[in-house]
Amino acid sequence: MKNLRLKAARAARDLSQQVLADMVGVSRQTINAIEKGDYNPTINLCIAICRALGKTLDELFWKQ
Amino acid sequence: MKNLRLKAARAARDLSQQVLADMVGVSRQTINAIEKGDYNPTINLCIAICRALGKTLDELFWKQ
DNA sequence: CCTCTTTGTAAAATATACTTGACATAAAGT
DNA sequence: ACTTTATGTCAAGTATATTTTACAAAGAGG
Predict the structure, then answer these.
(1) What domain range is B20 assigned to?
(2) Alpha-carbon span B21 to B17, nearest angstrom
(3) By the 8 A CB rule, do A61 and B60 touch?
(4) What is the DSSP code string of B25-62?
(5) Which CATH number belongs to the domain containing residue A36 in this structure?
(6) Mind listing the pLDDT tens digit of every residue in chain B (64 residues)?
(7) Which residues bind near strand C, taking a CB cut-off of 7 Å?
(8) How many domains, chain A?
(9) Is residue A61 predicted with pLDDT exceeding 80?
(10) Which of A3, A35, A57, B52 has its Cβ near the most Cβ atoms within 10 Å?
(11) Number of alpha carbons in the 13 Å side-chain half-sphere of residue A10
């Protein structure tokens, strides 16, 4: 399923997928795939994304 | 660096690495490596571990 | 002692996260 | 019209997460 919380948090900071990808050191396609929900990123990448967006793991990646 | 919060949470529930590994569907070595801090598990595995131990991502995997 | 459980560790193989390069589309600006 | 930016998607390759098999050491209990 899509990760809309991530998409929203990125939008709230007005960052493109490309810019966020550069900030965390991965390719744009990786960010796109995570938002699309295709796969299963590593925890270190999730943490880097959270830091870039000023959120925590629970806020962006925890599934109730 | 070691993940001592994970080790402590597992100890608090009196689970061996093997039993936790079975609960979340990975090998014992994978749990051992995560506690040892060798590597970088996927987010879905982290979530499964959190569920098994009654913790959240922030409690076990967030780095301040 | 002996056995069983737990943990630590290692090497080789397999599955999959992630990259690179590319193409398509839609929206915004000139 | 043309260009630029943002997003979506795909296929082939590379890096690495995870498995399997195996061995060693320490502690608990019989």
Answers:
(1) 4-61
(2) 6
(3) no
(4) TS-HHHHHHHHHT-S--BHHHHHHHHHHHT--HHHHH-
(5) 1.10.260.40
(6) 899 999 999 999 999 999 999 999 999 999 999 999 878 999 999 999 999 999 999 999 999 8
(7) A 25-30, 33-34, 39-42, 45; B 16-19, 28-29, 32-33, 35-36, 42
(8) 1
(9) yes
(10) A57
(11) 19
